[in-house]
Amino acid sequence: MGFLESVALYNFLRGPMVWITFIIFIVGSIYRIYTLINLAKKEKVVLPFINIKAAIKSWLHWLIPFASRNWRLKPYFTTFTFLFHTGIVFVPIFLYAHNALWYESWGISWWTLSETVADVWSIFVIIGCLFFIGRRIFDPTVRFVTSYSDFVFVFICLFTFLTGFLAHYQWILPYRAMLNLHIMFGEIMLIAIPLTRLTHMYYFFFTRAWMASQTAIWKIKDW
Amino acid sequence: MAIKLEISEEKEVYRSSYFPEYVRPKIYDPGLDETIKRLTPEKIEKAYQAVFGKETARIKAIVETCIHCGLCAEACQWYLSNDRDPTYAPVAKVKMTAWELMKRKGKVDAGLVYDIARIVFTECNICHRCSLYCPFGLDITFIIGLVRRFCFLLGVVPQRMFDQNQTFMATANQVWMSQSDYIDTLFWREEEGMYELKNLRIPMDKEGVEVVWFPLAAEPKTGPYHIDRIAKIFQVAGVDWTMVTMNDYWDSSNMPMFIRDFFTMQRIVKGLYENAARLRAKKLVLTE
Amino acid sequence: MGYKEIPFEVMHPGEFYYELLVSGRLKIDPAKKIKEPVTLHDPCNVIRRAGAAEKFRYIVEQTCEDFREMYPNREHNFCCNAGGGLSSLVQWYSHEARGNRVKAEQIMATGAKIVIVPCHNCTTGIKSIINYYKLPVKTMFFDELLVNTMYIPEEMLPEEG
């Protein structure tokens, strides 16, 4: 327990590790997007058929809860997945504590969430994680196609939010240890985004655009 | 449709050695059961390299985006009809075929090729419904098509499908119908139809028409009434139309597409296209 | 997706019949309209990949009096299960029919006596479902539908005898 609580670990995670994380995250993301577009250029049948108007419509319909047929067919899943995904993107950005860090380092800050909203939203994200894990274990269809990496992704998100929440209320572990864990998992998550299938965060827009363009040629809607 | 369904109602069960969940009734198909005996690991790997070897954007995007959420399952009629059997879900089909091949880099044995061929040829209709239900809009059928191509390169294709492909190669239609038989059938239908509609005509190879109608090969062969029905409709509506008898390219079905034999597929499309272009048609109406 | 610019339109007969009906070249005889309840199967190739759903519905509504939709319909329809080359696989017919119970349930839920199937391939599939599950329905093509219901001018009818 001593190591987790140590200031040395905290300094490492707050110092060089942050830089490494952000460099990997930003450079990796740009690289992933760039290579995909570059590969698509080589295939003659992809880019000439992309229809931006259809793609935007399709993005909107799939990014708004219950706007597409499959979202309506699965109301529970839709609720959890939207709370989870919006939470995982917006809570870290607009959290007051994170903003304070930005302010400390570079003197920038922006609009923040109130504490209650952030807490409730984090709890929803945690519930969403548990829902996904439950689905992967108890739904035979999903269980059949689940690999270990799928669990790992969900657990990374779960631990990041859980440790952050617990650190804020200083439960279970001492504050310093929990905070170190929280920073560590957060950094792992950011690094994992460009390196693993978590890139679906970016690729969503590409694959959706492709299908939307195809269905636009077929004169139907893909939502 | 006098097919005896009892023939294939066998009680024997096939169990995949790779996926314990994959249990199906045993159905004998020489195209699958006999051809896998000819396979060698080298052949399989070569076919794998030919299809999946080159990294392409579409395969990459599909494989790296799929988060295994299983939302596509509800879209598949196979899945819904078989009491939500997990092995019938589209994502499971992709998992058992393309992912398995990619995971093993094509180093697989004939048993897996049998499973793969059975999944992609007899358990997927390439209906594209799953793509409308995937939150990422992944083109699952594209992957199934690639795997079909892989199976075709190995020659592991259900017998009837392969047979039809060869029919297309030889005669450019799916029923071994020669040009003279075809013309004869058209004359015969014209004659029959005349009793129901005065001066019924089935024009052949008329240039500069409004519509060229390409039938399905099964129409002159097993359902000839379709031809005079169409002729009657066009005659009553006063459409300037024609049918094509030249160059053998008159069958609008394109069975080679189903096993991804690109060469024959292109030949057929090109043949139809050129026939229509030669007749300077404004519209091409393919059969129902 | 090969040819981007084709010098002629490629259409399904259903789309062409729709043009004929809309432009008034083909007229429907109201007395001959089909009275039995009908339903329409949406073939994947024409509906999901060419968006002809509304045109087909127009034809059916013009020629039939009691049209009942299947649910889900249009581009969300279920496949006939003969697509992708399965229609030719005789050895697998019962496998194929077992794999499409939802379609049988869909058809029965409408209570229709006739299923209009504007696709040869789909007809094979639907017929194998009908045979396997012993459904009290029959299939019908658009051409049959139109030949039976269209208005034929007097001068086109053959002389008696």
TrEMBL record, chain A:
Its main location: membrane. GO terms for cellular component: plasma membrane. The chain crosses the membrane at residues 12-34, 76-97, 117-138, 150-171, 183-205. SUPFAM superfamilies: Respiratory nitrate reductase 1 gamma chain. Gene3D superfamilies: Transmembrane di-heme cytochromes, Chain C. One of its GO terms (molecular function) is oxidoreductase activity. The keyword Oxidoreductase applies. This is Nitrate reductase. It comes from Thermodesulfobacterium geofontis.
UniProtKB/TrEMBL annotation, chain B:
Pfam families: Fer4_8. It comes from the Bacteria. Keywords: 4Fe-4S, Electron transport, Iron, Iron-sulfur, Metal-binding, Transport. InterPro entries: 4Fe4S_Fe-S-bd (IPR017896), 4Fe4S_Fe_S_CS (IPR017900), Helical_ferredxn (IPR009051). The keyword Membrane does not apply. One of its GO terms (molecular function) is 4 iron, 4 sulfur cluster binding. Residues 57-86 form the 4Fe-4S ferredoxin-type domain. PANTHER family: FUMARATE REDUCTASE IRON-SULFUR SUBUNIT, HETERODISULFIDE REDUCTASE. This is 4Fe-4S ferredoxin-type domain-containing protein.
